[in-house]
Specification:
single chain, alpha+beta
Length: about 140
């Protein structure tokens, strides 16, 4: 029986929300996240919103690398929301990977969403943990 792609995507988004909420709880961040259900009615919105980030999730049966249109999509959402774009992508039998702009790794670098890093989910969570207070200050200052 074929799998409905929308159902598969929603299931993966729920899994990512669970990972993020567990991370926030374990690290004493006063944050919880949930899926953005408005994404289905309004274009230009991310799948999951967490402070300072717009998260787009992609889970496909086959492949091994992100598609440029996925990155454009999350960058558009992040531009609309004034946040850091995050693309979490997975293919069957391939580990989850996360794409973020380099300025999310080192907030002192120029904001340029076309320069990105690809990393594991654990590495991205470590980046968040290391930079959370800097992201907070950068947001207050307007990310400039």
């Amino acid at each position: 029986m074929p799998i409905n792609s929308r159902t598969k995507g929603a299931s993966y988004e729920r899994k990512v929300v669970g990972i993020l909420n567990e991370f926030f709880l374990q690290n004493n961040f006063d944050v919880t996240c949930k899926r953005n259900l408005d994404q289905y009615q309004t274009a230009g919105q991310s799948d999951i919103n967490i402070p300072f980030h717009s998260v787009e999730c992609k889970h496909y049966k086959e492949g091994n690398w992100l598609k440029p249109e996925w990155w454009r999509q999350v960058c558009d959402s992040a531009d609309n929301e004034g946040t850091i774009p995050v693309l979490i992508f997975k293919f069957n039998r391939v580990p989850t990977r996360v794409a973020i702009p380099l300025h999310a790794v080192n907030p002192e670098w120029e904001v340029d969403n076309q320069k990105m890093a690809i990393m594991s989910m654990d590495d991205w969570l470590n980046v968040i943990k290391s930079n959370w207070s800097i992201y907070k200050q950068k947001e207050e200052d307007g990310w400039n």
